[in-house]
Amino acid sequence: MGELNLRPLQEADLPRLRELFAASFGQNRAQDYDRWRFIDTPYGLAPTIVADDGEKLAGSYTIWPTLLNIGGEVVRGGQSMDTMTHPEYRGKGLFTKLAIACFDQLAKDGYEALYGFPNANSYPGFIKRLNWDHVGDVPHWSRLITPLAEKPAPLPALSRMGTRIVFKTKSRGLHVEAQRPDDDTVNAVIALHTESKDLCRIERNASWYAWRYSPPFGRSYQWFTAFNGSEPHGFAVMGFDTDKATGGEAQLCEVIGTDEAKAALIAEAVRVCYRTYRKALKTITNDPAVIAALRDNGFIRRSEMRTIVKPLTTRLFKANIHNFDAWRFMGGDFDVY
Questions:
Q1: Which residue from 205, 247, 245 is spatially nearest to 222, judged by alpha carbons?
Q2: 203, exposed or middle or buried, with CB in 10 Å at 0-12, 13-18, 19+?
Q3: Where is the N-acetyltransferase domain (predicted)?
Q4: pTM higher than 0.85, yes or no?
């Protein structure tokens, strides 16, 4: 066990970073997924500080880079993710040292604000030792499709019938097609139907979508576009495991457009889940307009996810990142969706 060298991640570190993940969590992910996650982001190498002892990586702290739209101003930011400490090095305060070193480097590189969704184990460290601010909790939402999918027949069919009767869908009259809009349409819909004044959100554009929903990690994504006549009024993205053509759960990752389009898109996603015998359709959001459309289509609030933020600059933003009501989160903002 050598002396620890805290330094930025390099591309050549990826194999040892994967070994650290396996040692920390007892499993590993696809190599292509980790390359997408750490190396091939739209903003370059994910800012990461590793603790190198010469033989192995003892720990790492990573920020998933993104752009944040804060009150209409676009700044560099990121999501805290994949905090790892090798079992042989736990209890030595390495998490705090790695995080502080990462924040210092981020500030030098022009990053201005961070957000995160810590689990119960890491939450106290972020709040008490790293000066993050707990601003609120993002709700989980779920629409039951076949709640008894794993039970013997005829229970699955009866449960599907029951959810159709109890939970209605409201399409609002728009026509929805299972297709991805072209890049110009994506950018136009975002420009027309994304509020920015006094709000905080992850900045999206067609290039971001092309990267975000093409990772090779065992998940497939279905796009939907809502039309009023021939005019696109919104789009949505739904994800599901590629090794399950039917069954399992689906995730509603994106919904953007007019209020009518949101309802129509969610209704179509629900119908697709019925056709493919999904157990449930789930999402995470605190966006009031999306929540209204979710409720219209039978979604129920299930649980919440802690949300924390941290500024890396002393200047004032055009919106208050410490005000949870100013934030708009959707499934794709969470690295697990």
A1: 245
A2: middle
A3: 4-154
A4: yes
